[in-house]
Please model this.
Amino acid sequence: MRDDERHDEQHDTLYSIGELARRTGLTVKAVRFYADGGLVPPVDRTPAGYRRFDVHALARLDLVRTLRELGLDLATIRRVLDRSAPLREVAAAHADALDVQIRTLRLRRAVLRAVAERGSTTEEMRLMHKLAALSDAERRRLIDDFVDAAFGGLDANPEFVAMMRAAVPELPEDPSAEQVDAWVELGELVQDEDFRAAVRRMAAHQAAERAAGDDTGLHTALTETVRAAVTAALAGGVAPGSPAADAVVDALTAEYAATFGRPDGAPLRAWLLDRLEIADDPRAGRYWSLLGTINGWPAQESLDEVFAWFTAALRARTGTAR
Model:
């Protein structure tokens, strides 16, 4: 038999629902369901009324099975088969949807790992999943709300406020349990009314200083000077209230006097102590530490011990009790 004759014979062959099932590997029930739904229309019927299908039905059933395994709904599959929806566009849209599902599953896995590691309660697990599942826009809005509550209506340092707004938690596609844990803690922290009030006190102090003429930015160089001097004192075992700390305090207050254009003396030291005590909230350092964990930033050296020493040294010399 010639190839063209074999080809014509193949196209003339008609199949029953049972034969389609055997050839495609689908169940008879599934083939009948697709046929009843019009996805695989018959081309003929037997005298007894049984449906018959041609070779094109085999190809359509194979495509239907593939698209169903990929998760497409029947309405979408119908549009593909009717060519009212290009398969390329359908595939692209479905791939995007799968990306969202994959990200959701990864977040759930990370939440479950965090729960397993910390032995969370059911309520904590609910909160962890709720916070971890926030979109990027929702995470940004959470930080914006916090910054608005802390700095809104105050003429605080614009450079610092801009830095606060720009530092948004960005959970990676496949976050670790530690990152989910950090994000949950950060989410709770920025909604804590007591912490918001503490940050607002810092912001109000900044605004008052700006109104008095302090417009010198974040004082990064000054902070580094304090860090270097106090770290050396700590390494040398110098207690903040000891005579050996006098030289360190004198050098640092002279730096503040030069930076802020104020004479060194008792008023400057009282002002500086007030400034340090207002900023003395370990939760502020924790805020940046949590952000670093979530975003995978390099670990930063904590300055809590440094400024605690400097604050204690100033308090000892101004005779101020806390």
Observations:
- The first strand starts at residue 44 and ends at 45.
- Confidence is low (pLDDT under 50) at residues 1-10.
- Residues 91-131 form one domain.
- The longest helix spans residues 87-118.
